[in-house]
Amino acid sequence: MTRLYSKAHIRLSVCIEMTDDQFNTLDEKITALIALCAAMKQENQLLRAGQHNWQIERQQLLENNRQAKARLESLLTRLRSMEQSSST
How far apart are CA 44 and CA 85, in angstroms? Predict the structure, then answer.
């Protein structure tokens, strides 16, 4: 026995009549697909948040690196200056 709502006539090139089992199978697959989409959306949000955190950390590391480089260059300049003044 088929239910009224379980008959789907798709007019692409043929009409298809679905049995209750086919309809239930399709319904289960659609439900699983919806659940998968929701899980993937949540995972995507987590990945984007993680990416944002990594980008912030990267910017901080780049800034720390820039500051350390500037301090080293300053020290080298002072050392060269001291070396030149002691050799003259």
Answer: 61
Question: What's the token pair of residue 54?
Answer: 């990594």
Extract the tokens encoding 64.
């720390």
Backbone angles phi, psi at 37, to 5 degrees: -60, -40
Quote the tokens at residue 84: 């030149």
In the chain, alpha helices (H): 20-87
pTM (predicted TM-score) = 0.55
43 Cα distance to chain centroid: 8
Separation CA 17–CA 22 (nearest Å):
9
Per-residue pLDDT of 37-71, as tens digits, reads 999 999 999 999 999 999 999 999 999 999 999 99
Backbone angles phi, psi at 15, to 5 degrees: -100, 140
